[in-house]
Amino acid sequence: MSMLSIKNLHVEADGKPILRGLNLEVEAGEVCAIMGPNGSGKSTLANVLAGRDGYTVTAGEITYQGKDLRALPPEERAREGIFLGFQHPVEIPGVANTYFLRAALNAIHKHRGEDEIDAMDFLVMVKAKAKSLGLNPDLLGRPVNEGFSGGEKKRNEILQMSVLEPRLAVLDETDSGLDIDALREVAGAVQALRRPDRAIVVITHHQRLLDYLVPDRVHVLSAGAIVASGDRTLAMELEKNGYGWAAGRSQEQVA
Amino acid sequence: MNAAISATERQAYATGFAQALEQDTGLPAWLTSVRRTAFDDFLEQGWPTTKQEDWRFTDVTPITRLPLLPSPAGKPHFSPDHFAADLLGLGGGDARRLLFVDGRYHSGAAKERARPHEVLIAPLSGALTEDTGTLGRVLGHHLRSQNAFVALNTAFMTDGAFIRIPAGFTSDLPIYLVFLAAADGSASFPRTVVWAGENSQATIVEIHLGADCRSTLSSAVTEILLEPGARIAHHGIQKTSPDGAHVGHLAVTQKAGSVFSGSNLATGGRLVRNDVHVLLAEGGCTCNLDGLYLASGTSHIDNHTTIDHRAPRSTSREVYKGVVSGRSRAVFSGRIVVRPGAQQTDARQTNRNIVLSDGAVAHSKPHLEIFANDVKCSHGATTGRLNPDALFYLRSRGIGEKEAHQLLIRAFMLEGLDCIAQTGLRAELEGVLVKRIEELANPGVLA
User: Fold this and answer.
1) Which ipTM score applies to this complex?
2) What residues in B contact A81, CB-CB < 8 Å?
């Protein structure tokens, strides 16, 4: 059974159809890349998986670890192991980064019937993880994302992922706004978080990220549906030929 | 346009006033004269109405229907179960705490005599018969408004506290004044007078609590005089039952180079009205006012502040923040006056409101009157909802909806306690605030 199974998913936002019959299977242990042009529905897919308000599922099924995801509020999804890496991480003035992360981790622990983590143990663990991600430890005591540079925000997302240890991580354009060195480091950090029991869905415009974070599967999203799937060579072909080529190719396949 | 006091009411008040004067024997003649004048003022002017700009959003009719007379003298009683334990416990067991019940002194360090170099913390009733100098020079001299509530407080002045801080005396240990309104249908008129000598430093925490499930009214007046170079912090907290009301008037006069830090936390009550009036009478003063209010259910919380810059080179900073939920109302009116000659004034004011429900309303009225040309003045007001992106971000990490709301409200408000210098006191008041936020932010209230 797939970790995530999406069948014929139709989603509207503001009364406009965005996803139109999307099918996707993601297996545990897999890194899968979803590529597509602007407006193809990539971020909608990420937000729908995380349970954001403002999207209406009009048809189709989303099954995560055998559960119907549509019925769960965002916090339940997170506690069940879903993590969304935000394209635009939100600044939260007045809430310290470590406080926020510990509250999140404890909520997940509680859900699993585990003990709360000791405050000191937590701090030691987070500091070590921040260091390995190249994130300035000073940022841990600062309010969540407030005044962080674009790169710092994205590293902070990956820090959260590494602390919360999700089963399914959906990274929405984690590469956007990163310079080439930061991109390599962040991709390397995600690469290090691969596990046989964890699936990582990477949403991106560009093939470059995939040089460092090599995907098992590549899917092309166009006009709200997956129009082509393949291995990493598909990403390279896309880079060469453009998204129009992939859409055309799917037409040929259908024909 | 005030609401006149009817003939029947006049009779009741006159009888009550005569009784009050009879009870309070042994008081100095000057005080009796001050009280008589105030009482006549009250009868003459009557109650404020919503036709007056200062009372536009706050209708006092419901709390003035019955004659508001002080409860008879005698040892007052209260049941601790009727008060929020955390608030009642503030400063508990502290040698520097005075407790008042229904406006009358109940217990606490009643050191009516103090040597000139010692700080005096005494019930007003005792101090009035002992202190012939300082008290008379302060009491009644710093009121900048003589509305009906202030006038009634002066007329009835059941009891209260007198704090005299000698010149050069400094202490970080807070002085706690706890006023409980206990009896159903009671009215109390506590008066607090603080004289801070030159270069003295002290912190005063003034707490007004109304008993749960009781209809109580307290009309409190606090006058604080800061002599040159004095540094005084005053932290106020009010909480009454949904049937209780509190009307407070804080009048502060600052002399040269003094520093006043005021904070106030108002939570709940049928009607809470706080007037703060700070006069920067001499040059080089600093005034910081922080206000927090949490209104829920059908509460009405009104904060009216005036900061009056009358001399050059003074700085004032004012931040009032509120959260309104249910069908509650909050009012903020912040007036900053810069008189001619108050050059190089630096005055900043901010009011921010978060509205949690469709039925709740926050009124905000910044008001600058500037009559000098070399000044920096700014004001800003915002009213909005909790940021939905921030809520989703928190929830997407596993934090529940209710906890996410509380976390954001806390983050919004806690800054209002940053002015508290003592870490212990700050932690205590943070605990009080967090508890009130937890009580507030349940899904039923948020809906």
Assistant:
1) 0.96
2) none
